[in-house]
């Protein structure tokens, strides 16, 4: 059980207003991802929910109870930090057991729980080791283990994978998703990684400067971004934006088209241009094309197109998947 | 210093310094060792003769030696206890944000810059004096008879003075250690349901273990040879109540002019210091390995 509701939450550090006014509803069992550019207040928001920072105004409801003034421990949430924050002088076993010991649980019950968690997370062989003797991925799992033994109402993750290398990040991403399916506990997950956000989330919350730009399922945000910021932020590579007469022709101040929604041809099409850089990834090719009268655009093509620097090409947007924006950046 | 070549040349370059240091250390030690086997009294010049271990026998069987040994251990142990516990608490306080923290930090460090003789004089005449002292005034103002600190509890008084001097050192080291504690660890413990006291016991103290070890090791080295404070305040008395080994050696050599006996005492002190050092390193040195 863990639904969390933020009501008119405000946060300021001295004069600096980080979160002006924010409302958000998180349902029980949901996997919610906060994304946004660096410094937009994702961590701050998570810490407000955790109780590690006091709100400047507004209320935080956890399971229908007003938790605004409660201490972190009594909110029943567990947090996994970016730097893991393991206790370096305790063994893995003691690290995982620590919250249970603090809760005054008896030794036998603690032992069962710690071993159960270690089993789930493949940590059984490392229980006697110190955190300093573990790899980054193993440390991350210990941090998760320490969170799950408490059976919290919700898990809070603050960029838990950003210290890991690319391969391990993918593996841990799957493990966390798997864990969510097993436990069915609410999870709030902060990241600035696109792919993590798209693949893991039931619901993505896009933040900018402490303001929620849009909330929705990953595909919602991908298909119908509410404004230019969200359109540019969700999707990789980024959406191409074109202003000027190409947009005016479609009754908009600006139009946006994703790299994967354009067709590429060497003989004819709507927008002629010259290839500047081509990135062959094997499965796909991303071409950076200098389009006449529109500047640089990125287009996705098949893995084996034999096009390189300097080739003249034509791009044709898929009109049905084209996004139109007004002068304020709102979607039309 | 990775290759054989650089290591060899480094050795040659260090050699003069090492030799000088060795001579600096070994010559006085050798002379002391030599004198300790002589009957050598300044009151009887020209009568030096070889006496074997007689000086050692007299020194070790002197009842003053037992007292001095116990006093030395009490002085070292008591001061360590006060400075480590007091230093931890002070560091904990100075780590909190409060108004005027910079000034308070400076004031806490200040005693460390006061010379031992000066601080002993201040304590003797301004604080502990049974007539003019601050403590006596405090006692009288609540209607208690004033305590003559240096006469009634001489060793405790010396411990207090020495602790006052070493408290800043312990505080400084422990404060630095405390500031290096990762903020997220404390927050994680807070989320794990640890209250302020549990956080202190399970997170802060283990983090400080290494720094405490350093404080204990360094202080012990200096506290074994406390001298000025005793000379200025109690002169080792009354009787031998505040005589430590260092002071006993001094009184043999310069009050009784028995250079041979004092040398034997000096050698015994060196041996004792080494025993203490070995124990310390055995006992807590393993903290440093981590
Ligand atoms: N303790 C603090 N005192 C003052 N300002 C702070 C404090 N903590 C955060 N801020 C400010 O609040 C803003 C949001 O910070 P926050 O850490 O929430 O960003 P973020 O979205 O997590 O960024 P990142 O992706 O880089 O982690 C930043 O501008 C930061 O400078
Ligand atoms: Mg952050």
From TrEMBL, chain A:
Belongs to the ABC transporter superfamily. Keywords: ATP-binding, Nucleotide-binding, Transport. SMART domains: AAA. GO terms for molecular function: ABC-type maltose transporter activity; ATP binding; ATP hydrolysis activity. This is Sugar ABC transporter ATP-binding protein. Residues 4-234 form the ABC transporter domain. Gene3D superfamilies: 2.40.50.100, Nucleic acid-binding proteins (2.40.50.140), P-loop containing nucleotide triphosphate hydrolases (3.40.50.300). Its main location: membrane. One of its GO terms (cellular component) is maltose transport complex. It is a peripheral membrane protein. NCBIfam families: PRK11650.1. It is found in: Cell inner membrane.
TrEMBL record, chain B:
Residues 69-280 form the ABC transmembrane type-1 domain. The lineage of its organism: Bacteria, Pseudomonadati, Pseudomonadota, Alphaproteobacteria, Hyphomicrobiales. Signal peptide: none annotated. The chain crosses the membrane at residues 12-37, 68-92, 104-123, 155-177, 208-228, 248-281. It comes from Rhodobium orientis. GO terms for cellular component: plasma membrane. It comes from the Bacteria. Keywords: Cell membrane, Membrane, Transmembrane, Transmembrane helix, Transport. Its main location: membrane. It holds the Pfam family BPD_transp_1. The keyword Transmembrane applies. It is a multi-pass membrane protein. It is found in: Cell membrane. PROSITE patterns: ABC_TM1. InterPro entries: MetI-like, MetI-like_sf. This is Sugar ABC transporter permease. Belongs to the binding-protein-dependent transport system permease family. SUPFAM superfamilies: MetI-like (SSF161098). One of its GO terms (biological process) is transmembrane transport.
